[in-house]
Design brief:
two-stranded antiparallel ribbon, about 35% helix, alpha/beta, single chain, about 180 residues, five-stranded mixed beta sheet
Length: about 180
Amino acid sequence: MTPETITIDESGMTFGPYPSERCFHIEKSTLYTDIRQGVKMAEFLLLRADSDRPAMLWVVEAKSSSPRPKSEPDFSQFIAEVREKWIDALSLTLASLLGRHRQAGTELPDPFKTLDLSRFDVRFVLVINGHRKDWLPPIQAALQKSLRPLVRIWRFAPISVAVLNDELALKHHPLSRT
């Protein structure tokens, strides 16, 4: 029997297919819908687990464009919005895993529920459709700087932020062509 898979269409890209027990479309979940007002949300969560390493939770946000770093205040607002979505997605996930939201028990896939909260790592992933590769490093640097306190508090790996275009995302397998 073939395991169920899930694909997610966002910002002109199709992510997946992923095993449904490893992917949670948090932005479309009842969990998020119930608390939506004033809370921003990333697109989806992807749980990656190798037997020899701690599990890694990918918090994925997709965009169809981004402002150039020199276009203030638009660039700062863009960075703040992506940061807020990532932090809110991580916070809602952790609150759910700690039993703070009843619907998480039925909505979260089982591998998420057994995540070892003392050992897991996080990768905050931003994928920008059609973006030039040479435009990615300043965005990544700004997002790393904005998330530095969170990364240090949780002791996540220093490489916790990844900014990719659709071409790079294809190489890392969170994205497929349609």
